[in-house]
Amino acid sequence: MKKASTGSAMKKQGESRCTQKTISLLSPLGTIQVSGCENGVHTIQILMDVAPAERSSGAPLSCVVTDSPAETSPEMQRCVEWLQAYFTEPQTAGSLPLPAFHHPALQGDAFASRVLQVLLSDVKFGETVSYKRLAEMAGNPRAVRAVGGAMRRNPVPLLIPCHRVISSSGQSGPYMSGRGDHLKQWLLTHERQRGEG
After folding, report:
1. How much is the pTM?
2. Catalytic option among 18, 37, 63, 162
3. 37 is catalytic
4. What is the mean pLDDT of residues 39-52?
C-alpha cells in the first residue's frame, strides 16, 4: 500500500514537470541550441562545432533556425528573435523583450541568481564589468570567486551576458570554463564594433 502511494506521488511530480523542446540555430559562433518549455527558456548551449565567423567590414552576419519542433512556445520564439537580432542587427537587440527564463539557477534569492540578474539589468551592450565590480553591484564585494562560479553556471549565456565579465586587469578571462575563450573575444569585438556603428 505504501508503494502505491509513493508511485502516485512520483507520478504527480512527473506530471507537473514541463515538456522541454529544443531549437537549433546556425550562428556566427556555430550551432546554438535553445531548450525551453511553455514557461520560458531553460538553457542555451553554444556547441562550438565550427570556428567563429571571420569578420569582414560590413559583411552581414546571419543567425538562422536549422531545426525546430512543429510548435514552439511564445517564449522560445522570443528567444530566437532576440538571438537573431543580436547577431544580425545588434543595435536593435536591446529594445527587444527578453524571453522568460525557466531555470532554477535564475529563481530565488541565492547570491548566484542575484549576480546573474544584476548582470542582465545593469551591464549593457558593448559594456564590460570586472568580477570584483559585479560582486560589489550584487551586494557582496568579497564574493569575487562566487561571481566566477555564477558565470560558469549561467544557463542562458548570450541572454545573460557573462561574456561581458572580465578580470580587474582588463584581460577577458575564461569563457565556457576556458574552452570558449575565443568566443568571448569574438562576442566582445562584435559588440564593440557594432556599438560604434
Report:
1. 0.85
2. 162
3. no
4. 90
